[in-house]
Amino acid sequence: MKQRLRIEVTGRVQGVGFRPTIYRHAHRLQLAGSVRNTPAGVSIEIEGAPTAIAHFLALLKKQPPRQARLDSLRLTELTPLANDENFRIEPSAGSGDLRTGLPPDLAICAECQAELFTPANRRHQYAFSNCTNCGPRFTIIRALPYDRERTTMAAFQLCAACQAEYTDPADRRFEAQPNACPRCGPQLSFRNAAGPAAGGDALTQAMQLLRAGQVLAVKGLGGYHLSCDARSDQAVARLRARKNRPSKSLAVLFASLDEIRQHCLVNAAEAEALQACSAPIVILKRHPPSSLARAIAPDTGDIGALLPYTPLHQMLLAQLSPLVMTSGNRAEEPIAYTSAQLEDLLGESADGALDHNRPILRRCDDS
């Protein structure tokens, strides 16, 4: 005898790979039904043998995506449908008051990082690689429920290869809304105060500027950051003068946890925090042999450290590390995140900018 349930789930369940996970659980247990985003969260209808449904519920509670947070599950018994034989991801329900929180941006996962540095991979050195386990969410969402057409990625039409990944339940990019590749996705560009720089690779031009001890504006997930060589006293002093920030500590982006340990004292709890999918800045005690510029934290022995959380940051740090990475703004102003605001940074605060054409909808600084 079959059973059918409606399961209404609230919490952080959009933009974290929740629907693909539900699809895989249902498919593995040979259950029929559907899942879709709603203004309140996610709605699931599930049908099959009672033992299989019990197993499904256990998986739902014990094995959600690592970035998900389940606040509540409301179960309603339904009458089984005689002709429901498959499980589907259905279009989102977009009406009503939105009551689910915006999903957070997620630091690059190990799989995407590996692809980034594999020459044979089609996303080798692609600054916008992502999957259901990582990438932009909060900073690109125009509205909920969370679907591509309601993000700033809507303007980038998926190529055939990306579309195949997006529709393949076995692929980790299944239903990954910001999915893209060099053929169909956003692109990097380099510019200075005079405008876009003609000729040359954008990343190469940015690295030349950093190695020359100058200040680079970098467009990240939630805005522009000002960056310079963290071991150069002159570069850090130049950044401080331009930002009008004489003494407040500057955050430092390191290529790896091992590199952080060369400059900072790190305990187990701090190491765990540094590697979290939220990629926070963690305040650490400076290791005395560190070669970091003293001007990074002139009035304290602490260093605000973080690991590279986007493919672009990974690419930068692979060539020069560590880097100062502080919000692109004047003192006491919010972080710049639009092209118009970048114009104010160039010349006044930055010697050049590593920019891109994926719009940021809402600013979000590192924290």
Describe this structure in words.
With 367 residues, this protein is of the alpha+beta class. It has three domains: 3-79, Alpha-Beta Plaits, CATH 3.30.70.100; 102-186, DHBP synthase (Alpha-Beta Complex); 188-356, Alpha-Beta Complex (DHBP synthase), CATH 3.90.870.10. 24% of the residues lie in helices and 22% in strands. It contains ten helices and 15 strands. It has a ten-stranded mixed β-sheet with strand order 7-6-15-8-9-14-10-13-12-11, sandwiched between helices. The protein is elongated and about 75 Å long.
> Biggest sheet, in brief?
10 strands, mixed
In spatial order, strands of the major sheet run 7-6-15-8-9-14-10-13-12-11
Give the class-level CATH name of the largest domain. Alpha Beta
Label the CATH architecture of the largest domain. Answer: Alpha-Beta Complex
Distance from N terminus to C terminus (CA atoms, Å) equals 52 Å
Helix content: 10-25%
The CATH superfamily title of the largest domain: DHBP synthase
Radius of gyration: 23 Å
Broad structural category: alpha+beta
* Structure annotation, total helices: 10
Order of helices and strands: EHEEHEEHHEEHEEHEHEHEEHEHE
Overall mean confidence score, pLDDT: 92
As a percent range, the share of strand residues is: 15-25%
Instruction: Tell me, briefly, the overall form.
Output: elongated
CATH topology of the largest domain: DHBP synthase
Low-confidence stretches: 95-99
Total number of beta strands? 15
Total of domains: 3
